[in-house]
Amino acid sequence: MAITALLVAKSLKRERIFQDRQNPMEMMTNDMVLARYRFPKTAIIDLLKLVAPQIVRATQRNNAIPPIIQLLTALRFYATGSFFYVDGDVHGISRSSVSRVMQDVSTILGKLAVDTIKFPSTANEQDEVKQGFYEMSKFPRVIGAIDCTHIQIKTPKENEVVKWPGSTHDAFVLAQSNIATTLAAGVAGDGWLLGDSGYPLRSWLLTPFLNPGTGPERRFNKAQKRCRCTIERVFGVLKSRFRCLDKTGGGLQFVPEKCVKVILSCFYLHNLAKQMNLPDDDEDRIQQVLLDEFDDEVNVNGVPSGTDVRNAVLITYFS
User: For the DDE Tnp4 domain, which residue ranges apply (predicted)?
Assistant: First the structure.
């Protein structure tokens, strides 16, 4: 009896100081978990097994933040972009703890993104991508669609050396990238990327005809746009699923280095959601993101080799 009373007393004392940190998913339906964290319970548990060994804090204190709370705190922020004090209140931890959790979880997921998000490099990988695009629009030998998107961040307090500020043209960013160097060297074989008119026409990057005047040119542009819209839709789905990336979430209020980790984490989680065939977010919301984000671009002149390749595709497949 005395032992029981002592345990109850200790429990009451602990509850007066610390909030209960049981797994909040136990109190929710699977639909509620999916709405709040963008993943069902089973997926979150699987993700926890992946990241838990790296986020367990070595401490002798009794109030260490459990890995499940750390993961849910990060997922909730990615999903909503909510203020740290709101996220902390939901999960029973302080604002400063939310900041540390975001740093730790985003570092881990960011590394997973770097390790798993790759451009298709082998013949088998490229053939699979080509087949998918061809089934979509009958446009041949497409190994990818390319575009850029802006993610709002807090203005840095100090002068930051950034490679490509938001005003940099998409075509210039591509020209300085490893992908451009690799594809220009012929690594992609007979494949090519598709881009909008803001990109230069190259033998490995096909853009639409500016003023299509014939039936074949219009058919070419229609098929090219159907393929190219996949990347625009990806950005729409990404920002709708993870509101922290969308301007409606208020922008990322971190230093640039931490912003990069958060962005990479959302990319990794987006791919995970696609692998699990999770439903995309509200379609109306996705369409609004697309309308806000993508405008028609001014054409960048191509080179003869790009013109020759595009004309060959036009004659062979769309005439």
Answer: 162-271
Q: Which domain holds residue 37?
A: 2-116
Rounded to two decimals, the pTM is 0.80
Domain-terminating residue out of 116, 134, 152: 116
Burial class (CB in 10 A: 0-12, 13-18, 19+), 228: buried
Handedness of CA 156, 158, 162, 166 (dihedral sign): positive
How many distinct structural domains can be found in the chain? 2
Distance CA 257, CA 261 (A): 7
Indicate whether 142 pLDDT > 60: yes
Tokens of 129: 């991508």
- The top-scoring range by mean pLDDT among 4-13, 91-100, 192-201 is 192-201
Of 228, 225, 185, 217, the closest CA to residue 313 belongs to 217
Q: Are residues 146 and 97 in the same domain?
A: no
Tokens coding 25? 């998913």
Among candidate residues 66, 81, 116, the one where a domain is terminated: 116
65-86 burial, b if ≥16 CB within 10 A, otherwise e?
Answer: bbbbbbbbbbbbbbbbbbebee
